[in-house]
Amino acid sequence: MIRFFRKIRLNLLSEKKFTKYLLYALGEIILVVIGILIALAINNANQNRINKNYEHTYLLGLEQEFETSRMKLKELIAVNKSNANNSRKILQYITYKNETPTEVVFSNLLYNTFSNDIAFNPNNSLLNEMINSGNLKNLSNTELRRQLTNWLFTMEDISRQEKELSVQREKVLDMFRTDKSSLRTILEQTSVYDQIGLPKSENEISNLHLLNSTEFENNILMFIFTSYATERAHYIPTMQDLESILHLIRKEIKE
């Protein structure tokens, strides 16, 4: 083919048909340029297809991660709300002296409210991998990229708030690390001692006196306020962010 075109050019030159030669050479150049453009277009199309496949894979992984995180946060909101409600019941017993609870009721309230620490542990392994490797740029939706980047800062903010909630929880628990109150009584009244096979005490120490303690009341109030702030100013807005991210991810998957 190359020899064929070369032969045509030589014939035109030998016949001194310079105008036709120039037109032919220009046409040949145009054909070469068109060929290059077609090759580039095919290469770009293939690369776009590959990038789209990568993006789709990432989107499916992110959807799974954030759906798991959504379920975790939903459960955590319920636990935090339950702890706050139990704390309010304790505050009612402090406020209304004619409604003194039994030792069993009081112990169960204390145990159910303060036995577990609260911490949101979202699934961010894929998101962290994408950010660290620079693959976040493979997501074509700029709003989704922005929200995913902000998500990590939101997690840092929640972690700080949860630490404050943990501090208030510890202040309540510290009152059972002295000789004025009995942790044993709480564990015995809630059957925890039976479950782990610890010996029971013959002389039970009541914790009901705490209902007359201003220090205990202050600690309960601080715990309620912090729980409320954790839910309203952190967990609920985070749930809204999470659902917005899931909406964008699922929208991109369908397109």
Alpha plus pi helix count: 8
- Strand fraction: under 5%
The description of the largest β-sheet is:
none
Runs in which pLDDT lies below 50 for 5 or more consecutive residues are: none
Structural notes for this entry:
This protein is 78% helix and 0% strand. It contains eight helices and no strands. Helix 2 runs antiparallel to helix 3 and helix 2 runs antiparallel to helix 8 (214-254). It starts with a helix and ends with a helix. The mean pLDDT is 86.
Features:
255 residues, mainly alpha, 78% helix
Helix and strand arrangement:
Layout: H1 2-14, H2 18-95, H3 103-114, H4 125-133, H5 142-174, H6 183-189, H7 192-196, H8 214-254
Explain briefly what this protein structure is.
The protein has 255 residues and is mainly α. The protein contains eight helices and no strands.
